[in-house]
Amino acid sequence: xxxxxxxxxxxxxxxxxxxxxxxxxxxxxxxxxxxxxxxxxxxxxxxxxxxxxxxxxxxxxxxxxxxxxxxxxxxxxxxxxxxxxxxxxxxxxxxxxxxxxxxxxxxxxxxxxxxxxxxxxxxxxxxxxxxxxxxxxxxxxxxxxxxxxxxxxxxxxxxxxxxxxxxxxxxxxxxxxxxxxxxxxxxxxxxxxxxxxxxxxxxxxxxxxxxxxxxxxxxxxxxxxxxxxxxxxxxxxxxxxxxxxxxxxxxxxxxxxxxxxxxxxxxxxxxxxxxxxxxxxxxxxxxxxxxxxxxxxxxxxxxxxxxxxxxxxxxxxxx
Amino acid sequence: xxxxxxxxxxxxxxxxxxxxxxxxxxxxxxxxxxxxxxxxxxxxxxxxxxxxxxxxxxxxxxxxxxxxxxxxxxxxxxxxxxxxxxxxxxxxxxxxxxxxxxxxxxxxxxxxxxxxxxxxxxxxxxxxxxxxxxxxxxxxxxxxxxxxxxxxxxxxxxxxxxxxxxxxxxxxxxxxxxxxxxxxxxxxxxxxxxxxxxxxxxxxxxxxxxxxxxxxxxxxxxxxxxxxxxxxxxxxxxxxxxxxxxxxxxxxxxxxxxxxxxxxxxxxxxxxxxxxxxxxxxx
Lengths: 319, 283
Known about the structure:
Chain A: Keywords: Cell membrane, Membrane, Transmembrane, Transmembrane helix, Transport. The complex is a heterodimer. Chain A is mainly alpha-helical.
C-alpha cells in the first residue's frame, strides 16, 4: 500500500541521532543558532547581567563613583519604612484609577458607537488613535499649558463659568487630575480600537435574537456585549495596569513645568510623585544607586502582584 | 425585500444623528490639543497671558520659530532622533525577522527552551535594568553617545514574537522545501523566500519601532549626559524646563514641530497599523 511516504518525513530524527560523533547538534545547526544569537547576546549584556547586578547593588551602599559598601538587607529594611515610597505607591494607584476607569468606560462607549456607525469608520478610527502615537513629552507640554494657573484654558473656562480658578499644577489634587487626564486622553482611543475589534467578533444574530425577545439597548449591552467582551476588557485592564503603574514621563514633564527645582521633582507635597519617578529621583538626583536598586525591586514586586491578580481574574473565567 | 431595506435605512438615519454627534464629539476631544498647540504657537507670550484666551491662530509663528532655533539646536537634536530611530528600526527589522524565521520554520535542539526564555524576558521591567545599564555604559564609555541608545534596542522579544506569529502562517513549508531542492542555503531562503512574503508584517514592526524610538524619553534623558547632544524629546523637555513658564509660544512651537514627522509616519502606515494592533489584541 501507499503507506510508505507518510512514514518518510520523521526520518531526519533518526539520522540526527545516528551521527553523534563528528558533528553534534550545535555544529549541525550553527547557522540557526547564529541567526538567533543577536537577541540573546544583547539580552545577556543589557538584560540578564544588569538584573543580577541590580540585585547585587541593592545589597550595597554606593554613590556611583566611590567604593561600594556592603549593606546587607538594610536598604530593603529602610524601604519598608520609607514613608515617601509608600506615598509614591499611593499616588501611583490613585492616578492609575483616576485615568484608567474613565478611560476604559469612554473607550467602550466610543467602540459601541463606532461599531454601529456606517460611514467614515476609517476616519473615526484614525482620529481616535492619533493621540496614542504622539510623544508624551510634547503632549505633557501641551497639557501643562492647558492646566497652567495664569493663562491655562482650564482656568479660563472656570472663570468664564463664574467659578474660582484652580492652581492645577501646584495643588496635590490638581496635579493628579492633570496627569490622569493626560493619560486618559492619550490611551482612550487605543482601547476603543481594541474594543471595536472585539465587538466585531460578536455575531450579529445574537443582537437580532435579543431584539426579537424585546431587549432594550442597555439590557443588550450588559447582558450580551459585556460578558462576551470580558477577555478583551481584561486584556486592556492588564495593559493599562502594567503601563499605568510604571508611569514616569507624564508626571516628570508636567512637574518640570510646575517647578524648575530638579529634574525629578515630586510636585506640590510630592503629590505627583509616582513610584518610578521616586526611583529616578533617588538614583540619579541623589546618586543613591544602592537604594535606587532596592526601590526598583520594590516596584517590580508591586507590578508582579498586580499582574498575578489580573492573571487570576482571567483564570477564574476560564474554569 | 425592498420594504425591509428601507426600514433599516430609516433606522440607521434616525439613530444616525445622535450617533454621529457622539462620534464627532470624540473626534473633537481627540484633535483639540493639536489645534490648541497650533493656536499657542502662533501667539507671543504677551498675547497668551491675556484674558479671555485667544481661540484662533495668530500671526507670530515665524517669530516663535526664530526664537526656538536660537534657544535649542532643534535640527541637530532632530537629526539625532532620526539617526537613533532609523538605525534601531533597521537593526530590529533584520535581527528580529531573522530570529523569527528560525523559530517559525526550523527544528533544532533547545528551540522550545530558548523561545520560552525569550518570552520570559518580556516581563522584566525597564527600571530593574536602568542603573546597571547606566553603570555598564559608563564603564565602556558609551554614556553621552547615541550608541548607548541604539545597541541595547537592536533586537527585542516583542518583534521576534510578532514576526514568528506572522511567518508561521505566511510562509508555506512547500515553498521552503522547493527552494532547498533548488540549492538555496539558509540565508538565501531567508532573503529570497521568507522576506518577500512577510512585507506587511515587517511594515507594521518598522513603523511601530520607529515611533517608539522617536518618542522614547526616560532612557535618553539618563544616558545622554551632554546637554548639547540629545534627542528631540530630551531637547523639548529642556526647553520646557528652562522657558516653560516664561515663553510658552516658543515652547509650544517646539512641541508642534516635534510632532510633525511622527504624524507623517503615522498617516502613511495608520490603516494597517490600527488593523494589526487590534488583531493582535483579540488574538
